[in-house]
Amino acid sequence: MIERPVFITDFSLDKTEELMSSFGEPAYRAKALLAWVYQKRAANFNDMTDFPRALRDKLIQTIKVASVEEIEVQKAKDGTVKALLGLWEGRTVETALLPSSTGQYTVCVSSQVGCATGCPFCATGQQGFERNLAVSEICDQVLYFARLLGDKGTISNIVFMGMGEPFANYLDVMSAVEHLNAPWGFGLGARNITISTAGHIPGIEKLSKEKLQLGLAVSLHAANNDLRNKLVPLNRKYPLDKLIPACAAYIEATGRRMTFEYCLFEGINDSLVQARELAHLLRGMNCHVNLIAANETLGCDYKPPKPEAVLAFEEELKRLRITVTLRRSFGRDIKGGCGQLKSRIGS
Ligand code: SAH
Ligand code: SF4
Fold it and tell me: How far apart are the C-alpha atoms of 154 and 145, rounded to whole Å?
């Protein structure tokens, strides 16, 4: 069996200092090494030209720089780029780069290979669960796009909305957030990093104690347990009557407004009665609703409603004083929903 290689992005600053001292190098070289990786986006140790040759050789023998490699890239007309990335043992994962109107970019990262939650409308959910991603594999999705962009654009936001349930991989996800946020790492403000969960209550509770200014989004998609049990099967374990109070407690503990994602599926959760039920469920909470029309996945019955129905749903929420935004769906022509590229190509 091949052993898992060690990647530099698995290492915190402390661990990198330990590595440098094991080589007999001064501690400051740890920060210099991490700056080469996270800020100058070096793709290999030989790019680190201010390091002595002997040190570069030792690094090359001990550790690797990137834990993901490009397998396929697709570019949509709206500028969305989607990449299928290969992991060390041959499994694959998807990552997407989403342009914003201000010329900056959001990277949508995966936290797991597959997902155990099994939401029926989600291409990842149909693939089942394979394994958690390591810290390095999460950070390297961002660095992959940072290298691809070069000086042609900046990454202003990171969202955990790719494959997998981030809170089912809490420790690696939070370490990756630390590396992406730290001044010695990628240096992106915590406010610009959002974690999206299908409603994993222990994760929400732990996050509320982290004292981090991260964004939290909960994928609701239904405002009653009967329907939500079908759309988001995790609801059977963490039903709405426990999930909503957990979200309220998160808002109270952090003082932060949170987001509820509501994906509209024609004839399933898009009626005005359901809009009212949603408004009622969220009344009085410091939150906003992100509406998105479904992305069709291959061989699945969940279709987006007509644009008029989407607008009517949005208007009804506004009328009931719920703050709502209509999220544009990215990369429709390349099947932009995460998990869809992998479903087509196979792993
Ligand atoms: N597992 C987490 C994060 C990854 S999924 C979660 O469920 O929140 C990220 C978002 O994509 C979720 O809101 C999810 O419901 C949504 N999504 C999945 N499949 C979709 C599809 N076919 N159309 C639109 N949104 C979809
Ligand atoms: Fe998993 Fe999120 Fe897809 Fe549901 S929507 S199967 S929780 S990735």
Answer: 10
